[in-house]
Amino acid sequence: MPKKTEDRSERSRRDFLKLAVTAAPAAAAAAATGGEAEASVEAPSSLGMQKTEHVRKYLDSARF
Amino acid sequence: MTQVPHSQSAPRIVEEESARADFYEFMSGLLAHPPSDLLLNNIGSLDPAEGEIGSAIETLKRLAARADSQSASREFHDLFIGVGRGELMPFGSYYMTGFLNEKPLAKLRQDMMTLRIEREQNVYEPEDNIATLFEIMAGLIRGRFGEPASVAMQRDFFNRHVAPWAHHFFSDLETAKNSVLYAPIGTLGRLFMEIEREAFRMEGVPS
User: Fold this and answer.
1) CB pairs under 8 A between A and B
2) Cβ contact, residue pair B202, A34, below 8 Å
3) What is the separation, in whole angstroms, between the first and last Cα of chain A?
4) Does B193 touch chain A (CB under 8 A)?
């Protein structure tokens, strides 16, 4: 894997992301940490999947 | 790679990547369950930037200021739960095949095993829920399942399990009959998927 090319594409990816995501949703992140933080710290090695109540209700009704 | 001295709880990743993880988590939280009053309140105090994402956040902000957890929860119910079923089915398998629990879910479970990710024991829903997939993406970026995943690994997971349907799902969410608060959330998701697709394309690792 030619290192040089990777560096270049990595840089353009970073520049692109910087423009695209960094500015706006940095704020969104702040909003998200409201109640989510503890949940995600709980189980670092297994997926701390959020209990998606809608799915559970759906599955109950569909008897999966 | 293995010489990293016992890594701190949060492995170091660059700012752009952590912004992506933030965004995935933000969206995942909104899609897993209805927003709490606290979250709505926090959204109401956002300071949106310029551009398409900024204007979607602006709209979300305005709607969040008028919503409360009850109205949000009703909307969430109508969209995703419903009586029998909600207006939308936020599952990869459903979008890709027309049915729940089909081959895409089996493929996802296989890949999760390879990545050594498993769902918690008391969770029974299929893993191909959009909220779960976004949580996995955030986890891969942050290294919640070990080392932060390389961009190539993230891209492969994204291309197999997210890209084929998420954009379509978010477009549906944008225009769903029951979407009010969730309309700009759909817009945000759609725009974010476009950004991700474009950024992974730039990464330039041959597949």
Assistant:
1) 177
2) no
3) 46
4) no
